[in-house]
Amino acid sequence: MKGSAPGPRTAGHAPGTPRTPHLDGPAPGTPRDSRPTSPAPRDSRRVMRAPGARAGARRLGWALAVLALLTASVACGGAGTTEAPGTSADGPDVLRVLAGSEVGDLEPLLRRAGEAVGVRVALSYAGTLDGADQVAGGGADGRYDATWFSSNRYLSLIEGASARLSTQTKIMVSPVLLGLKASKARELGWDGKTVTWNDIASAARAGRFTFGMTSPAASNSGFSALVGVTAALSDAGEALEEAQIDAVTPRLKEFFSAQTLTSGSSGWLADAYAREGGVDGLVNYESVLLGLNASGKLAEPLTLVYPGDGVVTADYPLTLLSSAPPEKKELYGKLAAWLRTPEIQREIMTTTHRRPIVPEVRPEARFGTASPVELPFPNRRDAADRLIGAYLNQVRRPSRTLFVLDTSGSMAGGRIDALKQALTALSGTDTSAGGSFSRFRDRETVTMIPFNTAPGSPRTFTLPDRDPEPVLRQIRSYGEGLRAEGGTAIFDSLRAAYEQIRSSPSEDFTSIVLMTDGENTDGASYDDFADYYAALPVKFRTFVVLFGDSDVDEMKRIAELTGGATFDARQGSLAAAFKEIRGYQ
């Protein structure tokens, strides 16, 4: 059985990898901006085009990629856009959209918009909180024409954000629910019976089931689930306030004691569940749960539990930015109208398992006969942030994270500086919303294992349940003391991390982060490590950060072997890649 760390994986894209504007869309559910191995730079875009241009562009793109790997030096801390040959991320017929990864499954449909209504859609992906901060701070102005997140609720709470937004058009609907294995739902007596979040919390407290959920700091499905559970358990008749959040925190701890799987993306969470099992169910979008049932990948179907006291629903508003020029506003209007036509609404319902938004299209029988009750949402950003912070630092299981860090001679100069900056950011110096939620958490155990010719001595830091700043300062000081020299013993060092875990078993969310800028030159080989890993009685995920001149194929094999993922910091920021991984820990 895998350990409790998240298991993101997607075909061709790793967690959070920024997307390149290429002709082929990303696999559904791929995360956001700084990405894992298929992480591309932060502003990476995909231009939806008709299929005809793909083959030649793919061949040329591969040739250019090989040339780039042979000739380019690594640029740390900068974000860029990788353009598909022969295309542009802007143009008179291109609508540039900053989107949540959840809409990635619409890329095949969006490619047809060019022929249907003369609009080519260039999607760039970001996490909900990061995207909201970017829009509210003006960072999206001039770079994008519209946004498309699963919800604008968090964005609407940020001061000044409303002035950045113009027309909003809801495209589809999907509530966040609990899906349980059919046998577990029958065992609990929830098959065909009205169940409340209180009932679910009581069963969780009693240890009667386990579930997986995404991080509310990284994914809207996790945020919506957290808001819904909190509102229901606190009997909030109106918007959630900080006092209600504080009062209900003990009950939230009971509820989330049953969470044994986490992830930074709803799609990856579903993939990990289908691939590995190990938990009884998922809290996720109705569309994701229905999609799993339809996929044929599950040994046992999921029974969807619709809490009688309500849910929080995603309505996927395609939103025009106020800064968009007039010609882009026209493109927006054409695309929004096309997406709401009955024919396209039926196609969205059939292919993505989301409910239609227009009254002319009746939801299919699998969605039930009634719309779920909508639970109240925080009406102030400080309340929403307080809730996310309470979840990360008080409510959910603590984290245990091991960082296996390359400090070989090739890291000298800018690369070791980038590593120091990344550790500094995780120790609390990044004060953005995403940065504050990605810092090392209260109650977290962090172990640093630097390596060069051989693994160095592990250094462990345990953050207290309050006032973590003294320990965070120690981590910053430790990072500043790292020096680059020697060879590169990747697999001996990775094995040292697993031995560290074996020597102190824990029920915490446990994962390993491997960062290297080169190839293995000393000690054990990949095959040696694979044999060692196969013999481990309990297995945990390794998230690999590609940096510098990493052996990409071998690093991907490590992530694949351990159920982890790769994050690409070769063209973007190492700090952003580390931050992205935090959603999976």
Question: Quick summary of this structure?
Answer:
With 585 residues, the protein is α/β, with parallel strands linked by helices. Helix 15 packs across helix 21 and helix 18 (490-503) runs parallel beside helix 19.
Notes on the protein architecture:
The chain is of the alpha/beta class and 585 residues long.
Sheet of most strands: 7 strands, mixed
**Which class of secondary structure composition applies to the elements?**
alpha/beta
Tell how many strands the DSSP assignment holds.
20
Low-confidence runs of at least 5 consecutive residues: 1-46, 49-88
Average pLDDT value? 86
Strand share of the residues?
15-25%
End-to-end separation = 17 Å
Strand order of the largest sheet: 1-20-19-18-15-16-17
Q: Which shape, going by the Cα principal axes?
A: globular
Helix content: 25-40%
Q: Specify the number of helices.
A: 21
Radius of gyration over C-alpha positions, nearest whole angstrom:
23 Å
List its salient traits:
single chain, 585 residues, alpha/beta, 7-stranded mixed sheet, 21 helices, 20 strands, 17% strand, globular, disordered N terminus
Topology, pairings included?
Layout: E1 36-37, E2 45-47, H1 54-71, E3 94-99, H2 107-110, H3 113-117, E4 120-125, H4 128-136, E5 146-148, H5 153-156, E6 165-170, E7 172-181, H6 182-188, H7 197-205, E8 211-214, H8 220-233, H9 242-256, E9 259-263, H10 266-276, E10 281-285, H11 286-295, E11 302-305, E12 313-314, E13 317-321, H12 326-339, H13 342-352, E14 355-356, H14 381-395, E15 399-406, H15 414-429, H16 433-438, E16 445-451, E17 459-462, H17 469-480, H18 490-503, E18 509-516, H19 526-534, E19 541-546, H20 552-562, E20 565-568, H21 574-581
Parallel strand pairs: 3-4, 3-5, 8-9, 8-10, 15-16, 15-18, 18-19, 19-20
Antiparallel strand pairs: 1-20, 2-4, 5-13, 6-13, 7-10, 7-11, 7-12, 7-14, 16-17
Helix pairs in contact: 7-9, 9-14, 15-17, 15-21, 18-19
